[in-house]
Write a structure and sequence with these properties.
about 190 residues; mainly alpha; two-stranded antiparallel sheet; 11 helices; 2 strands; about 55% helix
Length: about 190
């Protein structure tokens, strides 16, 4: 539920869509989102759909053996980062370098929405022109330098989201209950009591 709420605010704050009258309107707005072929649109409009963990994880499990899938909770990353990274490195059969985990993904809004649209819209007219006239070696140099990411980050300012109301939280929990119960039963990941 928290992921859906965060996704909704990210999309509103970054201009992917306007604010709905109510966060729960997302359920109605994304009714047919599964059929949308554009993955970017599904990601930016499918707040509830994208938060159906069991549905998505079971799709992966239908393709890959279960022993190649390690479900981890972001709450554990936040609360016990050392244990989290130890599990991850052990699963990947890699040496755990013991690097401290920092939080990078904070709620933010663009300082300049037009510049933000330029950064995130691959079909932006100016980006198309720049792509067409810029030689490949220059594009690779600019992208490899990290300059675009630094400019994008400089255009952001932290801003917390309004807390979800108890009524909205209760309604959202009901929406996710079946998916969360299946997640617990089949993958032993308990997000019901989180």
């Amino acid at each position: 539920m928290a992921r859906a709420y965060s996704s909704y605010h990210y999309s509103v704050n970054n201009g992917h869509h306007g604010a709905y009258r109510d966060f729960l309107d997302s359920i109605e707005e994304e009714k047919n989102i599964r059929q949308v072929p554009d993955i970017v649109r599904r990601n930016n409009f499918g707040h509830f759909y994208g938060s159906l963990y069991y549905e998505h994880l079971s799709r992966w499990a239908s393709v890959f053996p279960r022993d190649q899938i390690l479900p981890l909770r972001t709450r554990d990353l936040s609360e016990t980062p050392t244990d989290f990274s130890s599990k991850l490195f052990a699963f990947l059969n890699l040496h755990d370098p013991g690097i401290p985990v920092k939080k990078y993904n904070t709620a933010a809004v663009p300082r300049n929405m037009k510049l933000e649209r330029f950064f995130i819209d691959r079909d932006h007219v100016l980006r198309k022109v720049i792509r067409k006239i810029t030689p490949g070696f220059i594009k690779r140099t600019v992208v490899g330098s990290g300059m675009v990411d630094r400019l994008h980050e400089a255009n952001r300012k932290e801003q917390g989201n309004q807390p979800i109301s108890p009524e909205q939280e209760s309604e959202a929990r009901r929406y996710f209950m079946k998916d969360l119960q299946l997640l617990k039963d089949e993958f032993q990941v308990d997000l019901i009591h989180s």
